[in-house]
Input
Amino acid sequence: PEAKALLRTSGINAGYGTMQVLWGVDLDVRAGETVLLLGANGAGKTTFLKTLVGLIEARNGSIVLADEDVTRTRSSDRMRRGMTYMSELAVFPDLSIEENILIGAQALGHARPQSRLEELYGLFPVLRDKRRDAASSLSGGQRKMLGIAKALAADPKLLVMDEPSAGLSPLFVKEVLRILGSLRERGLALLIAEQNIGFLEVATRVFVLEGGRIRFSGTVAEMADNEALRRAYFGLK
Ligand code: ATP
Output
């Protein structure tokens, strides 16, 4: 039998003013799964993720997280229920690296922030070395790491990430992939919106968004079997 969904959206419509961007989006993530949401620029990936985490209100449809309907709840409620949105914008440049991580832990009342810190430094050694420095002193790639560490400090069940590869050199993309792989091994569920198909490497399932509609969903192997998708996303004949 299929594993139960940790997150399930049904028929999500959303947009801005008179412009509708999302049209009936159905997507699910099971516990511990790594789901990739692929789509070109403007396909609606960011709009979908923001709707999911409560930064944009869904016009229709439903969002169920761990058996609770959260469609009309606040963003903070969805966080408490285990869904955290990773964004570099959530990093406070004037605070130190350690202060940023502790804010991530405290915002959700994590009981033992100090032990959480040690665990996160194990995952991101560069952040330990710079723990006392202002976040603004980090490179783009390091700031991305801090964004991930801050999101993880809240101990989520599902981490939602918008284009973690954006603006990163190939070396840093590799590093992000390595970290995501190790998070997956710890049982964390990931939902990653990307244009970079390098992320197929860590995905268990894929959803392809085009013009605000889900065009395909299935495993990576099923996607590779689909000739049109293969051409569009893998550049193969
Ligand atoms: P990208 O890779 O550029 O982030 P995306 O797939 O995430 O693309 P969205 O950012 O969700 O796509 O954008 C979908 C559509 O919504 C685009 O046509 C975009 O111009 C429009 N849009 C995005 N944000 C807003 C906004 N705040 N107000 C009005 N329109 C917006």
Notes: The mean pLDDT is 90. The longest strand covers residues 5-16. The pocket of adenosine-5'-triphosphate is lined by residues 16, 19, 21, 39, 41-47 (CB under 6 Å).
